[in-house]
Amino acid sequence: MKLLGSHLDNCPPEDAEPASGIVYYLVRNNPPQEGDFIPGIEKHPSVYKHRPKDQICQAHGFSVFKDIEDALKIKEEFNSLKDTEPAVGELTPECGVIKNTPSRTRRSHHTWWPPDGMKIWSLFKIEMQ
User: Fold this and answer.
1) Nearest to 122 by CA among 8, 39, 25
2) What is the pLDDT of residues 105-123, one digit of tens each?
3) Domains delineated in the chain
4) How far apart are the C-alpha atoms of 116 and 118, rounded to whole Å?
5) DSSP letter string, 59-73
6) 72 — phi, psi (to 5°)?
7) Any bridge partners for residue 99, and if so which?
8) Residues 1-51: tens digit of each pLDDT
């Protein structure tokens, strides 16, 4: 299966694991739509122009969280995410690969590289909170 970012050297990284488990992703639409799932490299290509290769690889995937609290924290930290809601999805190995890519404050952050062309938005829904 061809994964997002696989045209780059060592992307996804060799230590990425088969996708599995419940993850949260911030979306603007309910239900989630294709337009909610645009990799960072496509949304902000100039931001990644001179970044290290591992960051460029991550920008070809999607930032998901294993802990909803981390998703809610990042929503509050960035003005550009204020109008988003966490959507929940359950990943399986058919959904590509995933790697824990934590930050200092968001330990449950993972980067997910799904198969190219997969209708990933159909895996997610917004649960009433």
Assistant:
1) 25
2) 889 999 999 999 999 999 9
3) 17-125 (3.20.170)
4) 6
5) HTSEEEESSHHHHHH
6) -70, -35
7) 111
8) 899 999 999 999 999 999 999 999 999 999 999 999 999 999 988 988 889
Stated pTM of the model: 0.93
Cis peptide bond N-terminal to 31, omega within 30: yes
Residue 23 structure tokens? 């993850």
Count of residues making up the chain: 129
Return the structure tokens found at 4. 């997002």
Structure tokens, 111: 């980067």
Distance of CA 40 to the CA centre of its chain: 9
Distance CA 69, CA 46 (A): 30
Give me 93's structure tokens: 């190995």
